[in-house]
Structures are given as structure tokens and as C-alpha cells.
Amino acid sequence: MPSGVTNTAAFFTILNHTGEPVTLTGVSIEGADHVMMHETKVVDDMAKMVHLDKVIIDNEVRFEPGGKHVMVMGLSVTEATKSYNMKLHFANKPTLDVKAEVRNSK
């Protein structure tokens, strides 16, 4: 990600091996002003982002370009930034702390 970019997206995969559905209710990223879960939907040949209040995960869910993704706004970025602390918030499980690696888009 170029230095100074403040709006970006986060992509990742969540695997659920608990045997019961888990509900992702939000994502937070240290240093970001605002973080939202979205899904890209095509309606009448137009792509639009739809806000997601929750994502139910049975086995696996992918947050990827063109599908579910996390929009990150107001993120302070420098060339030295290699990762951010990200929290995955669940309705029925403890919050999961992960490192979000910074990568340039390809």
C-alpha cells in the first residue's frame, strides 16, 4: 500500500472448525477511523457494496475482492508499516486478535 493511503480493504479467510456456526459481528483495526464489512453485489449490471451487520460462518468464509470484504477508512500508513493489529468480533465466541499484513494490490 503506498505511503499516505487512508482508505483500503482487508481480505482474509476465516476457517471454523468448531462444529457449530459462529457469527462475525464486526472487525476493528488499530489506527483506523472506521471499519465496515461489505459484500459486492451486482444488481442490474451495476456493482454496489452492501453493508453487512454480521456474517455467519459454518465452515469457511472468504473476504476477497469482488465478494465479502472489509473497508478500512482513515488508516495512517507509512512505508515502514508492515502490519496492523486487527480484531475479529464474534457474537458467540471470544474476540480473535490477528495481525493484518500490509501488501500492495496486484
Structural overview:
- This is Copper chaperone PCu(A)C.
- It comes from Kangiella sediminilitoris.
- It holds the Pfam family PCuAC.
- The structure is a single chain.
- This protein is mainly β and 106 residues long.
- It has one domain: Sandwich (Immunoglobulin-like), CATH 2.60.40.1890.
- The chain contains no helices and 10 strands.
- A 4-stranded antiparallel sheet has the order 1-8-4-5, with no helix packed on it. Strands 6-3-9-10 form a 4-stranded antiparallel sheet, with no helix packed on it.
- A hairpin with a 5-residue loop joins strand 9 and strand 10.
- What is the overall number of helices? 0
- What string, H for helix and E for strand, traces the elements in order? EEEEEEEEEE
Number of domains: 1
Any idea of the CATH topology? Immunoglobulin-like
Helix content: under 10%
Quote the average pLDDT.
Answer: 90
| End-to-end C-alpha gap | 10 Å
Query: How many strand units?
Result: 10
Class from helix and strand fractions: mainly beta
InterPro entries: LpqE-like, Lxx211020-like, PCuAC_sf
Pfam families: PCuAC
Protein name: Copper chaperone PCu(A)C
Organism: Kangiella sediminilitoris
Keywords:
single chain, globular, Immunoglobulin-like, mainly beta, four-stranded antiparallel beta sheet
Indicate the topology.
Layout: E1 8-10, E2 12-15, E3 22-29, E4 34-43, E5 46-51, E6 55-57, E7 60-63, E8 68-73, E9 83-90, E10 96-101
Quick overview of this protein structure:
With 106 residues, the chain is an all-beta fold. It has strands spanning 8-10, 12-15, 22-29, 34-43, 46-51, 55-57, 60-63, 68-73, 83-90, 96-101. The chain has a four-stranded antiparallel beta sheet, with no helix packed on it. A four-stranded antiparallel beta sheet has the order 6-3-9-10, with no helix packed on it.
